[in-house]
Specification:
Layout (H helix, E strand, L loop, with lengths): L13 E6 L6 E5 L8 E11 L3 E3 L1 E20 L2 E18 L4 H13 L5 E6 L4 E8 L19 E3 L2 E11 L13 E13 L2 E15 L11 E7 L3 E7 L3 E3 L3 E10 L5 E15 L7 E12 L5 H11 L18 E8 L11 E3 L3 E14 L5 E13 L11 H9 L3
Parallel strand pairs: 2-12, 15-22
Antiparallel strand pairs: 1-3, 3-10, 4-9, 5-6, 5-11, 7-8, 11-12, 13-14, 14-16, 16-19, 17-18, 17-21, 20-21, 21-22
Length: 414
């Protein structure tokens, strides 16, 4: 919750950043970067102390970082050796102007002298001035113990009590989204509050913030059917389709396969379906690093029971000297196969489709391998792929790493 380089006796009982308008500390942006509306980020810095402490300033900042773990292959006397180098880039920063601490304290003194218990203060940022007045509540005054203000001493004394310092900012819709599920690449955000104290170490409190970009409700990808239509000359015509190009992480999609056999005696064998993630990343120098991982897979061993029919036919003709005719005498003018492909509900197993500046790119596709059993006994394989877009939906729950796990992982970079 908070940290300092030592543990002084006047350590706050509570020092925390609390966000008001967000669920699970997630800042949700709807739509692509060039169309998304700005969003409000607001909250309070909460401070609870059991004995008076002196502070010089209270600062708050929001920052975003892109970090990569770039492999390099070195040739040694023992052969090639791979090592990793760390690339880090600050992609966003937003500062609150010391939360206008001087004005806050002066208003608090004035209200205390007038017998009031409500104090208001303003804060401005480097993005835009925010003239709205927020209320700051305190269960005790900020008057020093001798009854005099301490502004002239360049610090302020907080007596025992609970304090809330409000803040807010308008975050642009073009903000780069968080990326936390990729191997060797990440984009993270954090809020950091710092209490500067005279002659004592600073107190620092951090809050992990996730910036999630989701599709707008009218996005074409949510209603666009994706299909591939092709033919294998003298063997089959086929169509493979899914209802929508966009698939929410943690949901599922229906696979529709339609095959029209042209070759008499052809049978359908096992069908393998896999969702593959392709990612690319690069630093300020060197080439582009390509990664590929399997996100989900599905195998239909005998979708139309053709394999079982062939085995049955062979068992009846196993005494024959010259092979068997695999044609069962039944001919279907078309084969239809439907299957449900589930997408893992975890951002550690897959990432959303995204393009982060010139450093990270993530895309997905569903691959198909369809086995065709020929009349002469040999097996042909039909291969196809459909491009899809994985996205994070606010209506579908997903599992994520905790902020501590993310930080430990990022420390292993380099």
């Amino acid at each position: 919750m908070f940290s300092s380089s030592s543990r002084p006796s006047k350590e706050p009982l509570l020092f925390d950043i609390r966000l008001r308008n967000l669920d699970n500390d997630v800042l949700l942006i709807k739509g692509p970067p060039d169309e998304a509306s700005s969003v409000l980020l607001s909250g309070t810095i909460v401070l609870s102390i059991t004995e008076p402490i002196q502070i010089k300033s209270l600062a708050l900042r929001l920052f975003g970082r892109l970090r990569l773990n770039i492999p390099t292959v070195l040739q040694t006397v023992h052969g090639p050796h791979k090592r990793y180098s760390k690339f880090e880039r600050n992609i966003y920063s937003h500062f609150w102007d010391d939360l206008n601490i001087e004005s806050y304290f002066q208003n608090l003194y004035d209200n205390h002298n007038n017998g009031k218990i409500t104090i208001s203060s303003k804060s401005s940022t480097n993005l835009a001035a925010l003239p709205k007045r927020k209320r700051a509540l305190s269960t005790a005054s900020l008057i020093s113990s001798n009854g005099q203000t301490s502004a002239s001493k360049n610090y302020h004394t907080l007596v025992k009590g609970n304090y809330e310092f409000p803040f807010s900012a308008i975050i642009p819709g073009s903000l780069v989204e968080s990326v936390e599920g990729l191997p060797n690449a990440a984009v993270t955000y954090a809020l950091e509050a710092t209490i500067e104290r005279p002659k004592q170490p600073d107190l620092i409190c951090k809050k992990h913030l996730r910036v999630i970009r989701t599709l707008a409700i009218d996005a074409v990808e949510l209603s666009e059917t994706v299909s591939v239509d092709n033919s294998w000359p003298e063997k089959v015509d086929y169509t493979i389709s899914i209802p929508t190009k966009a698939i929410a992480i943690g949901s599922s999609t229906m696979i529709n396969i339609l095959i029209v056999p042209i070759l008499k005696g052809l049978k359908l064998g096992p069908v393998r379906i896999s969702l593959v993630e392709n990612s690319q990343y690069c630093g300020s120098y060197g080439g582009v690093i390509n990664q590929e991982r399997m996100v989900a897979k599905l195998k239909l061993k005998d979708p139309l029971k053709h394999v079982a029919q062939i085995k049955k036919k062979r068992s009846l003709n196993e005494a024959a000297d010259e092979g068997v005719d695999t044609d069962t005498g039944e001919f279907q003018d078309k084969w239809e196969v439907r299957a449900l492909l589930n997408i893992p509900a975890s951002l550690t197993k897959c990432s959303q489709d995204c393009r982060i500046l010139s450093n990270i790119k993530v895309r997905h596709k569903i691959k198909f391998t369809i086995s065709l059993l020929n009349p002469d006994g040999h097996i042909s394989e039909l291969r196809a792929a459909l491009p899809v877009q994985l996205f994070i939906s606010p209506f579908v729950p997903v599992n994520v790493k905790t902020s501590d796990v993310i930080e430990r992982t990022l420390k292993t970079f380099g």
